[in-house]
Amino acid sequence: xxxxxxxxxxxxxxxxxxxxxxxxxxxxxxxxxxxxxxxxxxxxxxxxxxxxxxxxxxxxxxxxxxxxxxxxxxxxxxxxxxxxxxxxxxxxxxxxxxxxxxxxxxxxxxxxxxxxxxxxxxxxxxxxx
Length: 129
Prior knowledge:
Layout: E1 3-7, E2 10-12, E3 18-25, E4 32-39, E5 46-52, E6 58-60, E7 68-73, E8 78-83, E9 92-100, H1 106-109, E10 118-119, E11 123-127
């Protein structure tokens, strides 16, 4: 059974750090695109970062470049989102997602939630003093 189980999240002060984890039970990570999205009430889900299958191509939303890092541990079947220098505007519910590895138009398509078939349960990240 394919399932994404998230952990991490919580309350952190501006400038602080937090790491989210996504256990991809039943997945072989090299065969999938794994992404992190976030959503605030009243808005669509926003692609934050993505890692493509075996070639490991990595993509970031411009708003998090230089602050967030996506990585994976194949042996643990776990994908991470390390978040540093957090800002209040990073406050959202964060989701991990998995879908078929994209082969073309990747820079555009990875941002679309419709490219992903499996979703984690979501975890709240609140950045506030």
